[in-house]
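Reminder to self: tokens first, then the designed residues, so the page reads top to bottom the way the pipeline ran.
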């Protein structure tokens, strides 16, 4: 469809008005659905939070799984014969653990 620019007919004016209305409507919808761009402060806070989380994760990963000093002390006590077993205490702990497995944690 070819329209001559110089001729100002009512159909051309109506077409332009309809097109303008659609463009304005589309722009209004995009303004509503487009999320706001975060300010630079928000970006910095998120970056700092991510950096702190990374550092904390690394510090936890750097912790030894086994306390070597405690293991050494335990081995020494066993080898020396100074390590004493307390059967009633062990029985109580086992009974508590079994109760925990069957009934779940107690409500406080």
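Designed residues (108 positions):
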């Amino acid at each position: 469809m070819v329209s001559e620019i110089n001729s100002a007919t009512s159909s051309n004016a109506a077409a332009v008005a309809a097109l303008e209305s659609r463009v304005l409507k589309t722009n209004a919808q995009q303004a509503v659905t487009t999320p706001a761009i975060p300010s630079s402060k928000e970006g910095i806070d998120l970056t700092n939070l991510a950096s702190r989380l990374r550092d904390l994760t690394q510090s936890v990963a750097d912790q030894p799984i086994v306390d070597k000093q405690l293991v050494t002390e335990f081995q020494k006590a066993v080898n020396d014969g100074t390590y004493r077993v307390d059967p009633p205490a062990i029985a109580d702990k086992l009974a508590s653990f079994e109760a925990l497995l069957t009934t779940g944690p107690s409500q406080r």
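The chain has four helices and no strands.
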